[in-house]
Structure formats: structure tokens, C-alpha cells
Amino acid sequence: MDARVLTISRNGPFRGSAATFGALIGSGFRRYATYRQATIAGTFTNIVFGFLRCYVLLAVAEGAAGHSPAGYDAEQLATYVWVGQGLLSVIGIWGWTELADRIRTGDIAADLLRPVSPVTSYLAADLGRALHGMLTRFGPPLLAGALFFPLHTPTRWQTIPLFALSIVFAVMICFGCRYMVNASAYWLQDARGPLMLWTLGSGVLGGLYFPLRLLPPEVTLALTVATPLPSLLQTPLDVISERDGPALQAGLVGLQAIWVVLTLALAALVQRRAERRLVVQGG
């Protein structure tokens, strides 16, 4: 057999790095593409919960004065719900415990021997996972919602490009946060406690269960500026539903870009500190 290993060439380091990163993205995509039954079951579950969430939020809209709670009309709320259901598997705020498990079992030692840092390799694999989710699990919930509810159709030319960019940023921010939560196993050995807190906090403060705009304005502003969590779902959903004007719409995506840099930098810092700890322990 012809076994080929991707290496970084001295004559073209950027080309070699890009090829390696692309290969890791492809491997992440192929990994999740093998679970066809899980994909179908997960999509069906997202659609069922989409109906429940949509009817609840539409009932809130009916009971609100002027039928526009926090500035959302009925079509924008329906769009918020169904696009959110499609993005759940793309952004992937739940379920990833691979790093914590490998730390607990000691398999992380093999990752540290590889030429690519764990943060980079896991990020590439996660981007492949997100690409698979976008191609297989984003469309069906959105189609189901469009069949049974009137959805908001974007009216600005910049909405779709900003939405696509916002999704990419949300995936990277979510990865950075999940990596740091998983990396707590370097110090705690068992990361189930932090993972449980992440599961609860990311859903509530990320805008999954209800739009954060329903909270008092000062609370929403504080959460958006001081934490990366609203950038996971709230920001992409506000962008596609055109809840805000063009300037604020672009500003929210710009804030996401800042959180991408911060979360990935913090993840890399945590990893370096963890490696120093392993050396001190003799690992």
C-alpha cells in the first residue's frame, strides 16, 4: 500500500500547513458522515422540538402588547426558532467530551507527540463536523418550518453573507469554549461537573431556549459584551431574522470576530499551561 504522510515543506510552509489543516477538516467530515442513522434521528428530534418551541414563542407574541415582544414579529420569531433548530448540530454546543475523555484515560499523550498542536487538530476536526451538519441537518428543520409557518425572508443583500460569516464565527467560538471546559480535566481529572455547567449555561445564555432580547436590555447588553455565549446562537439568529439595523447587524458579527480571537487564544494558553503541568507531574 502507498502510505502517504502530510508534512510541512520548508519551501512552502503555508501550503503544507493549509494542506494539513484541510486534511484534518476532511477527516472530521468523514467521521460524522458514517453515522447516517444518528443524523436522521437527530434531525427528526430537532424538528419535533422545533414545533414545541415555535408554538410557545408564538403564544408569547400573541400575548404581548402589539404582538412584537422585544421587537420580534411572528415571522421573525418563527425564523429564530427554525433556523436555530437547524444550527444546533452545526454549532454543536453539546455532547463533545473527547478531549476530557482522552485526558482521563491518558491517551492525550499521543496527541502531544503529534506535529500539530491539539487545539489546531481538534479545531480542524470540529470544522469538518460543522460542515457535515450544515449539509445534512440544517436544511430539513428549516424546510419543515417553512411548510407550516410563515418565515421571515431577508430583505437586505448583506444579510446572507453576514449570516454565513456569523455561523463560522459561532462554530469557532463554541469550539474554543468547549475546549477550555474539556481541558479542565487536566486539573480535575473528571470534567463532568464543568461539562454539566456548560450544558446548562450555553443553552440558556446562548439564546437557545428563548431570545435573550426578552430579558431587560441592560442584562442582554452585559451578556453580549462580557461573555461569548450570546455569540453562539443569539447573534446568528438575530442576523438572519434582521432584528436590528444594518449597522448593528454588522457590529454583532464584528463582536463575534473579537470573541473568536479571544476564545482560541485562551484555549491555546490553557493547553500550554496544561502541558507544563504534565511535565511537572512527570507525564
Brief summary:
InterPro entries: ABC-2_transporter-like. This protein is mainly alpha-helical. 73% of the residues lie in helices and 0% in strands.
Q: How would you describe this structure to a colleague?
A:
The chain is mainly alpha-helical. The protein has one domain (35-281). The chain contains 13 helices and no strands. The protein has helices at 13-33, 36-63, 74-92, 98-105, 108-112, 118-136, 139-148, 159-183, 185-188, 192-205, 217-226, 234-241, 246-281. Helix 2 runs antiparallel to helix 3 (74-92), helix 4 runs parallel beside helix 8 and helix 12 (234-241) packs antiparallel against helix 13 (246-281). The longest helix has 36 residues, at 246-281.
Secondary structure tally, helices: 13
Largest sheet: none
Briefly note the structural class of the backbone.
mainly alpha
Uncertain residue ranges: 1-10
Radius of gyration: 20 Å
N/C terminus separation: 35 Å
Mean pLDDT: 88
Overall tally of domains? 1
General shape: globular
Extended strand count = 0
Helix share, percent:
over 70%
- What is the N-to-C order of secondary-structure elements (H for helix, E for strand)? HHHHHHHHHHHHH
SS strand fraction = under 5%
Based on the model shown, name its key terms.
13 helices, 283 residues, disordered N terminus
Write the layout of secondary structure elements.
Layout: H1 13-33, H2 36-63, H3 74-92, H4 98-105, H5 108-112, H6 118-136, H7 139-148, H8 159-183, H9 185-188, H10 192-205, H11 217-226, H12 234-241, H13 246-281
